[in-house]
Amino acid sequence: MKILAQSKENLNQLEKDGITKHRLFILALQHMFAMFGSTVLVPALTGLNPAVALFTSGLGTLIFHLVTKGKVPAYLGSSFAFIGPIIAAQEQFGRDGAMLGIVTAGLVYILMSAVIRMLGTDFFRKLLPPVVVGPVIITIGLGLAPTAKDMASEHLLVAAVTLAIAVGVSVFAKGIVKVIPILLGIIGGYAFAAFSGLVDFTPVMEASWFAFPKFALPAVEGNLKAISLIAPIALVTMVEHLGDVVAIGSTVKKDFVAEPGLHRTLLGDGVATLAAGLFGGPPNTTYGENVGVLALTKVYNPMIIQLTAVIVILTSFVQKIGVLIRTIPTAVMGGIVFLLFGMIASIGLRTLVENNVDLSKNRNLVIVSVTLVVGISNLTLSFAGLEFGGMGLAAIVGIVMNLILPEIEKDESEITEEELEINSELRYEAN
C-alpha cells in the first residue's frame, strides 16, 4: 500500500511540475542513454549476454524502487567492480560458477541489510572505513590493467581513437553529453572500426527484430568455490552503494540513509543482484551516471527512473541490439577500459584523499600497503573448501586488519628519552 501511495504522490508531483507525457518520455530516454554504455560494457568484457544484462538492469531497478517504497530516484546497472572476479570465475568454473557467485553476492547484501537494520549504520561504517575501501577499489582498477592491454592490442589505432573520443567528451563536452563519454566513445570507435573494415554486419542483418533474451539459471553442483571469488566483492560495493545513496540525497536534498533507510536501499540492491544472477546477468549497482543526469535536469521524480527501467526491459527484447553489441571489436572496448579501469583506481585514491586518511600513521599505512599487495598480486587462499583470491581476499584482509589493529598510536609526548636518542642517531646516520 505504501508503494501505491508513493506512486500516486509521484504522479501528482509530475502534474505540479508541468511534466507532460512527451517530456516524461524524453527525460526517461536521457537516463537510458546515461546508463546504456556502462551497462552493456560489463557483459561485453565478461562474455555475458548483453540483452540479459539490459533486462536484469531494468528489472533490478524496478525491484529496487519497490523495496525502497518508490522514494529513491536511483537507476541500477551492471557493476564494474565484479568484472575481474567474473572473468576469473568463468575461466575456472564456467558461467554457472560465475552466476552462483553473483547470486551469493546478492545474499551478502541482503544479510548486511538485516544487520544494519538491527545495529544501525555506525556498525557498517566501522566495518568498512575509507582506509579499507580505498585500497581495495584501487586494486579493482589496477588488477584489470593487463586485461586492458590485451584488448587494446587487438588494434592499437582503433583503441587510441576510441580512447581519444571518450576523453574529449569527458573533458570538453557540456550538458547531458558530458555524462555519457563511455557511450559516445564506443559509438565513435565503432564507426572508425567499421570504416576500417573491421566490423562484420552480417549477423546484425540476419538477426530477428524481436526475441527473448537467452536467460541462464545457474547450476549449483561443482561450483561452490566460485562463491569465494565473487561474493566478497559485495563488501566493497556496499560502500560504493552508500556513496551513491548519499550523492543522490545531496542532489535532491533528502536524507535517504534515514528514510527509507540504508537497510532498505541495500536490500533493494541485494535482491536486484540476486535476481540478475538467477537470470544470467551481471551484478547490479546504483549508477553515478544517472545521478549526474539528475543534477543536470533538476528533475528528481522517481517515476522517470521507473519509466526508464521499463524502456530498457523492452529494449532487451530487440535481438538486433544484442547482436549489434556483440559485433563491437575488442579493440574498441580496449580503448574504453584504458580510461575506465584507470578511473576506478582513481576513485580509490580519491576515497583516501577526501576522507583525510592519514598515511603518516603506521596503522593506516600498514592496512593500505598490505591490502594493495594482496589485491594486485592475485594471491589465493583456500579455506573450508573455498578459494579466496585477488580483490575479494584483499577486502577480507583489509577488514580483518582494521578490526584487530589498535587505532590509538603512541603520542609524541609519550616517547621515551631512549627512543628519542635512537631516532636522533638514525637521522644523523642518514645525513
From TrEMBL:
<keyword id="KW-0472">Membrane</keyword>
<feature type="transmembrane region" description="Helical">
    <location>
        <begin position="180"/>
        <end position="199"/>
    </location>
</feature>
<feature type="transmembrane region" description="Helical">
    <location>
        <begin position="99"/>
        <end position="120"/>
    </location>
</feature>
<dbReference type="GO" id="GO:0042907">
    <property type="term" value="F:xanthine transmembrane transporter activity"/>
</dbReference>
<dbReference type="InterPro" id="IPR006043">
    <property type="entry name" value="NCS2"/>
</dbReference>
<dbReference type="Pfam" id="PF00860">
    <property type="entry name" value="Xan_ur_permease"/>
</dbReference>
<dbReference type="GO" id="GO:0005886">
    <property type="term" value="C:plasma membrane"/>
</dbReference>
<feature type="transmembrane region" description="Helical">
    <location>
        <begin position="299"/>
        <end position="318"/>
    </location>
</feature>
<feature type="transmembrane region" description="Helical">
    <location>
        <begin position="388"/>
        <end position="405"/>
    </location>
</feature>
<keyword id="KW-1003">Cell membrane</keyword>
<feature type="transmembrane region" description="Helical">
    <location>
        <begin position="51"/>
        <end position="67"/>
    </location>
</feature>
<feature type="transmembrane region" description="Helical">
    <location>
        <begin position="74"/>
        <end position="93"/>
    </location>
</feature>
<feature type="transmembrane region" description="Helical">
    <location>
        <begin position="330"/>
        <end position="353"/>
    </location>
</feature>
<dbReference type="InterPro" id="IPR006042">
    <property type="entry name" value="Xan_ur_permease"/>
</dbReference>
<feature type="transmembrane region" description="Helical">
    <location>
        <begin position="156"/>
        <end position="173"/>
    </location>
</feature>
<feature type="transmembrane region" description="Helical">
    <location>
        <begin position="127"/>
        <end position="144"/>
    </location>
</feature>
<feature type="transmembrane region" description="Helical">
    <location>
        <begin position="24"/>
        <end position="45"/>
    </location>
</feature>
<keyword id="KW-0812">Transmembrane</keyword>
<comment type="similarity">
    <text>Belongs to the nucleobase:cation symporter-2 (NCS2) (TC 2.A.40) family.</text>
</comment>
<keyword id="KW-1133">Transmembrane helix</keyword>
<keyword id="KW-0813">Transport</keyword>
<protein>
    <submittedName>
        <fullName>Uracil permease</fullName>
    </submittedName>
</protein>
